């Protein structure tokens, strides 16, 4: 096994302070490697989203350290964290978070623009990514003109812009029907294996499990289970 | 619908900025009207200022004299005492002086053909000299002033003075005068219209002695140093003021715009226009920004530097500035066209257009600041809410 892409050591996150302080994450240590799909399970309020934010360099934990691609995060400021996200992380959100005024391909092109892809190549690269997700023929549609599953595919195409090595998806199937949701997860699974990137999916959806290489359980902010999936489809 | 392979000319921050604006058309139109109105307000007020300034110094600006010799203590070209003609010969004796002409400028009472009086400014010129002649003559000839009682006035004031055509007769200071020509666009800030006549005729109306005049207009010999001649004239003549032409023009502008308060009133209104613009742009841009906070949070979450977000806002401001400026400038020129036939002129030279453009850019960028300040505090984790 290669060196881990992401390492968390004794990570703790506390929201608020004093009487209202709430420990959302407690003593989390784990490693995430390229080429696998990790499924993050746990009851509502157990800290899954918080953990994803820590992994995605959106939230600096109060305790412990986070090392992404060999770089410890604790000394980085907001702009440096943003730069790290831009370079390494692709996000997929429950509510897609597409830019509603931009066409499908333009949504992807903005992410490419952020990654300094030259303007004259943005259209072609965006089209390539949309094609990969089977959305090539919808490239000129606005998000409002797409179904939920189609929107999520566009969002994944956007997350893939610039080939990040860590893809973080928070409940990517929650707003989709079972079959569509499964398709989306299958796509993420394919990506992890074909492009050798690490994929972390937060989900309540049992239909996601067959696509996971590894399953983590969170409860009250603590890691209670970490196992290799037996019957994954890889 | 465009095909999948289509390119839009806009990408990145420009695309986001343009779509943010054009998506909410009503608000965009409010912004443009706000900027346009503000440009109109600033343009008209500053244009009036330029118009007034040029009006107050028109006679000086149009003279072909290097130096003006004025009675001591003269503060503006329209109001002055008298000089003795012997000053002229003293001036001619000063080294560097080529020619010296006389110019009479005094107030007079104009009695309209159908009764009623108006105050006028009598301008007595020497026809055989080019030091000062009525300009923009649209009817008659300057040479016609040679005739007995002949005067030339401006079309803008024909109604006010109760005359309509060449040949109309009136009384000035109870003496007969006859219209022989019209100029167009020669305004007076004092609202006492200029009445052009020969210096000889002009002596008669205000009862000047034949050896008196108001100003002496000096032309220099080629190569003469104006500053040196000016000092020499002051020494030689004593008890007179000697002005460089441009300085005298500036002095007249300062006198009227400051003493009448017109200058500060106009500047204040222009400033008000700027403030109105900043408020409207700031307000509408901020509303758009707040509407789109989730999108800015998404951009930040996926790794956009703060500068990228700011660029979107600034480009929105720039687009608003460009379109609003176009709209406002158009309106300003409509006003300019309309007032060119009235007795208050709004004059907008090209440099003023550049000033307006700079003010518009300042206004929009300043308006963008509140939005930028809001985005500094944006929380990228809010995208998971
Ligand atoms: N910004 C915040 N401020 C204060 N408390 C927070 C904040 N975000 C999360 N929490 C709290 O931290 C705990 C963990 O929240 P988190 O969103 O990580 O849970 P989750 O496992 O993602 O839940 P769900 O399955 O409902 O999405 C919860 O008790 C939540 O109320
Ligand atoms: Mg959650």
UniProtKB/TrEMBL annotation, chain A:
Coiled-coil ranges (or none): none
Gene Ontology MF term list: ATP binding; ATP hydrolysis activity; transmembrane transporter activity
Matching Gene3D superfamilies: P-loop containing nucleotide triphosphate hydrolases
Annotated TM spans: none
Record domain ABC transporter: where: 6-234
Keywords assigned: ATP-binding, Nucleotide-binding, Transport
Family matches, as InterPro entries: AAA+_ATPase (IPR003593), ABC_transporter-like_ATP-bd (IPR003439), ABC_transporter-like_CS (IPR017871), ABC_transpr_LolD-like (IPR015854), MacB-like_ATP-bd (IPR017911), P-loop_NTPase (IPR027417)
A family per Pfam: ABC_tran
A single GO cellular-component term on record: plasma membrane
Domain of life: Bacteria
Key word Transmembrane present: no
Family affiliation: Belongs to the ABC transporter superfamily. Macrolide exporter (TC 3.A.1.122) family.
Name listed for the protein in its UniProt record: Putative ABC transport system ATP-binding protein
TrEMBL record, chain B:
Protein name per Swiss-Prot or TrEMBL: Putative ABC transport system permease protein
A Pfam match: MacB_PCD
One GO CC term on file: plasma membrane
Record bears the keyword Transmembrane: yes
Source taxonomy: Bacteria, Pseudomonadati, Pseudomonadota, Gammaproteobacteria, Lysobacterales
Residue intervals passing through the bilayer: 28-53, 255-281, 317-338, 350-372
Cellular location(s): Cell membrane
Cytoplasm among keywords: no
Organism for this UniProt entry: Dokdonella immobilis
